[in-house]
Design brief:
There is one protein chain. The protein has 4 helices and 2 strands, in the order ααβαβα. It is mainly α. The protein has 2 domains: 40 residues; 72 residues, no CATH class. A two-stranded parallel sheet has the order 1-2. Helix 3 links the parallel strand 1 and strand 2. The longest helix is centred in the N-terminal third of the chain and has 23 residues. The termini are far apart.
Length: 134
């Protein structure tokens, strides 16, 4: 298809101009104001996360079949980013769904070691991230 004067790009621009002219100005202004209010609330909440004393944080043991699929390792990294919200007592690894018959605890160690490398930066945002040696 042509992208010249009569092509899809021109039609798309015409459609956008039509939509802009159809939307009443006061409706657009209201939508922008609502967006600004929600953005402000989100920023205020993000700026002051609630701190729970360590002895009141939920205790947990993370169980994983890490090593079977790439998303297992990605999930472990994401989990480690939330360790400031929990008391992590330990990790257990096993195999799931009969796919694999070996465990990969070295992948947990690798993720925890990587967490240790970025820990100083994480603590700039929240001081209650636990040590990777914990």
């Amino acid at each position: 298809p042509s992208l010249g004067q009569n092509g899809p790009a021109r039609n798309r621009c015409h459609t956008l101009r039509h939509l802009v002219s159809v939307v009443p100005v006061h409706l657009a202004a209201t939508a922008i104001a609502v967006g600004v209010v929600f953005a402000g609330l989100g920023a205020a909440q993000a700026a002051a996360p609630s701190r729970v004393p360590d002895d009141q944080k939920p205790r947990l043991v993370a169980m994983t079949d890490i090593g079977g699929d790439p998303d297992d390792q990605q999930s472990m990294v994401r989990f480690l980013l939330y360790t400031c919200d929990y008391q992590v007592e330990g990790f257990c690894t096993g195999f799931g769904h009969g796919h694999y018959k070996n465990t990969r605890p070295e992948l947990i160690r690798k993720a925890v070691d990587a967490y240790g490398k970025v820990l100083p930066n994480l603590r700039k945002h929240r001081a209650d991230y636990p040590s990777h040696e914990h």
